[in-house]
Specification:
With about 160 residues, the chain is α/β, with parallel strands linked by helices. It has one domain. Helices cover about 30% and strands about 15% of the residues. It is built from five helices and five strands, in the order E-H-E-H-E-E-H-E-H-H. A five-stranded parallel β-sheet has the order 2-1-4-3-5. It is globular, with a radius of gyration of 15 Å.
């Protein structure tokens, strides 16, 4: 599985953003693309629809819709919107090609992330999202590496 971080430019300025942590520790499994409203990513727009998921809660999210012929355990590409909830909503709504992909909503998880104010308990940070997805695909070495890096990062004040 390859993780594509579609990152809001403001995230790159934050010392407490976890998206860059994923790319640093899993460079073979992660690519970061800075979201540009007026210049869509050709790479992301051309990923295969049948094996790509966008992690974003919609009415038709994969976890809620059993009719979709895709399994989170078998996808090849995952797009994570890396930004605040407000930024992610804006990015999704203003990026038409993202609507071509099935969406997946992660539910039933509690965030352990403590470095950002106003963090929603049920809203995972970007690194926690990646860890969840890697666990679903049983990529245990990558899970252990990212989990360890996240724990250290999460304790830095």
């Amino acid at each position: 599985m390859h993780i594509w971080l579609l990152t809001h430019s403001e995230e790159l300025k934050k010392a407490n953003g976890t998206g860059q942590l994923i790319c640093k520790h899993l460079p073979d499994h992660c690519s970061l693309i800075v979201w540009q409203r007026n210049e869509p990513s050709k790479v992301l727009a051309n990923l295969p629809q049948e094996s790509t998921l966008v992690i974003y809660p919609t009415a038709l999210s994969l976890e809620k819709n059993a009719n979709l012929n895709m399994s989170i355990e078998a996808v090849d590409h995952v797009i994570i919107l890396d930004g605040t909830w407000q930024q992610a909503r804006k990015m999704y709504n203003r990026t038409p090609y993202l609507h071509n992909y099935a969406t997946y909503e992660i539910t039933g998880q509690v965030s352990r992330y403590v470095r950002r104010k106003n963090q929603q308990k049920s809203g995972l940070c970007t690194a926690e999202t990646a860890i969840y997805l890697l666990q679903k695909q049983r990529l245990t070495d990558q899970v252990a590496l990212l989990e360890s890096a996240f724990e250290v990062f999460n304790t830095v004040v």
